[in-house]
Amino acid sequence: MSEIKVTFVGTGDAFGSGGRLQTCIVAEGPASKFTIDFGASSLIGLRREAIDPNSIDTILLTHLHGDHCGGIPFLLLDAMLGSKRARPLTIVGPQDTETHLRKVQQALFPGSQRMVPKFDLNFVALTPGTSAKVADLIIHNVEAKHTRETNPLAIRISVGDKQIAYTGDGALTEELIHLVKGVDLLIAESYFYDKPVPWHLNYPDISQLEAKRIVLTHMHSNMLEQVDNVEEECAYDGLTITI
Ligand SMILES: [Zn+2]
Ligand SMILES: [Zn+2]
Questions:
Q1: Which three-class secondary structure state does DSSP give residue 80?
Q2: Distance 221 CA to ligand 2 centre (A)
Q3: What pLDDT, on the 0 to 100 scale, is given for residue 2?
Q4: Per CATH, which fold does 5-242 belong to?
Q5: Contact of 138 with 58, CB cutoff 8 Å
Q6: Cα(18) to centroid of ligand 1, in Å?
Q7: pLDDT band at 24, cuts 50/70/90?
Q8: Ligand with minimal distance to 17 CA
Q9: Could you tell me the CA-to-CA distances from 132 to 91, 104, 129, 205 in Å, in that order?
Q10: Which tens digits make up the pLDDT trace of 126-149?
Q11: Cα of 94 to ligand 2 centre, how many Å?
Q12: 146 touches 189 (CB < 8 A)
């Protein structure tokens, strides 16, 4: 039996709700360490949790919104100039991830495109509705019902003998229900508590999802006001669990 340590480095949304950092979840498996999403504040979050950015082998991105991928340029700049990374890094994401991130890097740090990493930097593009093997991870995905221009995905990761699913951002769909069914850990967006907000998973939708353990995240202040009143486990920045 493999144990996976999961640290919720950032559990907020794009609007700073609750003063929380943007989405970044670090999972440490038997053979590698990976993050799920890497929002703009994620490098700060890793430092807060005393997680060495150079120890991350793989970054999985669900979609191209800044609160889920905007931290990559900061990580790459630190890897080249600060932390002097030597080990390879693989960034896995939806279609156009590499092109999009290069544009974001150029916008945030003009001139940085001339710098060449001294480590292997690999990009893997996920085709919607398929599976991919990256290092010791098998990643299944389905298209998420979210802003189309972000190429949104929900993902299920097999690592060791465990399965972790993450909804990403997106409304409830039959494909999502099927993808996450029975996993060891489901990390689920729970954006609003009692207001049906489109393109997101809201609290009333959670009852449709089945998993051995469910942790809610990416909560608007409307949902954060209810975390003590719901029976589901709610994430906070710095929460660490083992599955
Ligand atoms: Zn988001
Ligand atoms: Zn989004």
A1: helix
A2: 16
A3: 84
A4: Metallo-beta-lactamase; Chain A (3.60.15)
A5: no
A6: 14
A7: very high
A8: 1
A9: 13, 25, 10, 28
A10: 999 999 999 999 999 999 999 999
A11: 13
A12: no
